[in-house]
Task: inverse folding
């Protein structure tokens, strides 16, 4: 009897691969869980035909706080990959199959030795300005190509999911812990939720970007939403700012990367006046900074002192928003 696609605890994944017609029911599959994911199970799957990566959304996120989200979000991640592949094919993993019943999809396997995670490179001081520029360019191209598209707005009308995955756990949770700036944070939630201009990735962080031989590859679009471009831009810049709170010796370099990323992005941002988008991004940024200290998904790498400094900076700039991202980055010295 053939062994069948059943390996320790991963039977659901193996069955999903069969339903995607990626393997036959009688083939031998070796599934190895990948570490790191908090919102999904993600496996390296060795098949007779080669290696693929398979991802399935979890109903409850692996964080300390109780955070439950519908698994239907997985289909939007696959949809985002389809749209992005039409715009920047080298910058997304190739989608190989989808099983909506299981909330799973399969994509090309990108070996970690050739595709390191950008966050790891940044933490080691191995990030470059060219990488940051390329990341900004890809984000700008995706936003520009999806701007003011009614068809995409209908396909990604994921407002409720975006609220459950992003606005509530980040900004609204931070508001509950910081009553002094709660009204400002609520205003940011309202502005962000009401701005529907481009296809937003929703988790545009260095943790979700691999740096491959042909440039960045963007992963993990389960928060995809037709909404405010400022969210993705602020999200990316936020993580670069947090890196300088983490590794202060490279602060000047992280600031330079931020400028490169924003400049490359800006070159594509023609759907609205740059001053408007810049001001919305600069207003949102202190909210996202605070969310990474006091929200449901705080970054794991800041000391208590660094957290307090980020919190202080965020409070000041929530009360008096900077007019531009450049100004805010310049002022950032927690
Ligand atoms: N196609 C792929 N090939 C190889 N490795 C991958 C691939 N996709 C994801 N990974 C690895 O798995 C990790 C987690 O992937 P992903 O971010 O999609 O999962 P997640 O559960 O949504 O994560 P989190 O919620 O923590 O951001 C990535 O950082 C990367 O190291
Ligand atoms: Mg991820």
Result:
């Amino acid at each position: 009897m053939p062994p069948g696609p059943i390996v320790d605890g991963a039977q659901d994944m193996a069955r999903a691969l069969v339903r995607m017609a990626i393997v036959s029911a009688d083939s031998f599959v070796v599934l190895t869980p990948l570490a790191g994911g908090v919102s999904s199970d993600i496996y390296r799957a060795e098949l007779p035909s080669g290696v693929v990566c398979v991802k399935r959304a979890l109903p409850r996120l692996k964080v300390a706080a109780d955070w439950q989200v519908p698994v239907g979000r997985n289909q939007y991640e696959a949809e985002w990959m389809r749209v992005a592949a039409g715009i920047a094919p080298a910058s997304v993993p190739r989608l190989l199959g989808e099983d909506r019943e299981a909330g799973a999809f399969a994509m090309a396997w990108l070996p970690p030795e050739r595709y390191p995670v950008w966050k790891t490179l940044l933490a080691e001081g191995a990030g470059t300005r060219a990488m940051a520029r390329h990341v900004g360019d890809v984000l700008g191209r995706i936003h520009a190509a999806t701007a003011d598209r009614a068809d995409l707005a209908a396909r990604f009308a994921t407002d409720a999911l975006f609220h459950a995955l992003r606005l509530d756990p980040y900004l609204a949770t931070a508001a509950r812990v910081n009553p002094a700036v709660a009204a400002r944070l609520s205003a940011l939630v309202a502005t962000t939720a009401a701005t529907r201009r481009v296809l937003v990735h929703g988790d545009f962080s260095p943790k979700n970007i691999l740096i491959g031989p042909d440039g960045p590859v963007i992963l993990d679009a389960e928060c995809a939403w037709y909404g405010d471009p400022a969210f993705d831009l602020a999200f990316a810049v936020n993580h670069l700012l947090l890196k300088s709170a983490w590794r202060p010796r490279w602060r000047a370099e992280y600031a330079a990367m931020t400028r490169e990323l924003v400049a490359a992005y800006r070159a594509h941002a023609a759907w609205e006046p740059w001053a408007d988008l810049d001001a919305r991004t600069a207003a949102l940024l202190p909210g996202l900074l605070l969310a990474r200290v006091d929200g449901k998904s705080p970054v794991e790498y800041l000391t208590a002192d660094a957290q307090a400094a980020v919190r202080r900076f965020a409070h000041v700039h929530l009360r008096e928003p900077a007019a531009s991202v450049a100004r805010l980055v310049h002022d950032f010295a927690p």
Notes: Residues 274-294 form the longest helix (21 residues).
